[in-house]
Write a structure and sequence with these properties.
- The protein has 150 residues and is of the alpha+beta class.
- It contains two helices and seven strands; from the N terminus they run E-H-E-E-H-E-E-E-E.
- The chain has a seven-stranded mixed β-sheet with strand order 1-2-3-7-6-5-4, with helices on both faces.
- Strand 1, helix 1 and strand 2 form a beta-alpha-beta unit.
């Protein structure tokens, strides 16, 4: 974690176990959490993906986080947000590990035929408008799975 007094320290929150980092991030966004708040979990008991799918998130095998952005724009202006995040995560995985990953269905990262990461983007709109109050970016990266985990 960051050293005490680090300028981003108040924006990072770590939990050993959460149901879902996105669920907590959305709750915190509705309570006014600032732009750049990041929720990290050692494991998720109810991690989720697109269309209500589950995202298996056991302890000690992955990186599970969600970030709150406050873009202050119309939802239509964020059409490519998930794609941009996917490219950034691909770059980060390659920088950290040397593994080249690809993007499948805009929100999954794959290495060969194996899914190595998933992205879930959710928007919170200002009531009665198309203005985005918060964008929640959830990222789950598989790091230490065994063959049987797949």
């Amino acid at each position: 974690m960051l050293a005490p007094g680090h300028p981003w320290g108040e924006l990072l929150q770590y939990y050993d176990t959460l149901e879902s980092t996105n669920t907590l991030a959305k709750t915190l966004a509705l309570q006014g959490a600032p732009h750049g708040t990041v929720i990290i979990a050692g494991q998720q008991t109810g991690g989720r993906g697109r269309m209500g799918r589950s995202f298996h998130s056991p302890a000690g095998t992955g990186l599970y986080l969600s970030a709150i952005l406050r873009p202050g724009c119309d939802a239509a202006d964020l059409m490519h947000l998930t794609c941009a995040v996917a490219v950034a995560v691909c770059d980060a995985v390659e920088d950290a590990t040397g593994l080249h990953t690809g993007i499948k269905w805009i929100n999954d990262l794959v290495c060969g035929k194996r899914k190595v990461a998933g992205i879930l983007t959710e928007l919170v709109l200002v009531p009665g408008t198309a203005t985005v109050d918060a964008a929640i970016i959830g990222i789950g990266i598989n790091c230490r799975q065994s063959e049987t985990d797949f």
